[in-house]
Amino acid sequence: xxxxxxxxxxxxxxxxxxxxxxxxxxxxxxxxxxxxxxxxxxxxxxxxxxxxxxxxxxxxxxxxxxxxxxxxxxxxxxxxxxxxxxxxxxxxxxxxxxxxxxxxxxxxxxxxxxxxxxxxxxxxxxxxxxxxxxxxxxxxxxxxxxxxxxxxxxxxxxxxxxxxxxxxxxxxxxxxxxxxxxxxxxxxxxxxxxx
Length: 195
Fold this sequence. Notes:
Elements: H1 2-27, H2 33-40, H3 44-72, H4 74-94, H5 98-126, H6 129-156, H7 162-194
Helix pairs in contact: 1-4, 1-5, 1-6, 1-7, 2-3, 3-4, 3-5, 4-5, 4-7, 5-6
């Protein structure tokens, strides 16, 4: 029982931190809009387009990925989303072309779209009663910390390179998920064997 609860808590923290970093990738953007305008020498209209495109892609991908999560499961979608977001964050940090930057932001939106869905779904599957309430509280607390932490980070590193920091965080998170993915394969094999 204690091992099952500790595994559930580890899973909770993994999905909550994933959703937190997805929130951070949205919140880190707004304060650096003037820097993006100056860095890429583009109009405010194009910079605002990048915000709109991110939100639209996120909304569309949540619908698509929600169905995939229901059909295939969350583990692989979680890892794919984290890896896509990490790669796109690094791309946003290093590119000097606004079109490429916009493409990387689209990939970042697509990758991070599933993370809050997976967190909420996982909490619903793993916890019941007051434990579910506590787990949702942990999840919401981490999400609400996103704007504060992004504001703090941007006072220390007010540039497009802040995306590089996000990329590093997502890369570390994906590395932490590898044992989790191995367990997923083991669980799937056991389920098939029982059928």
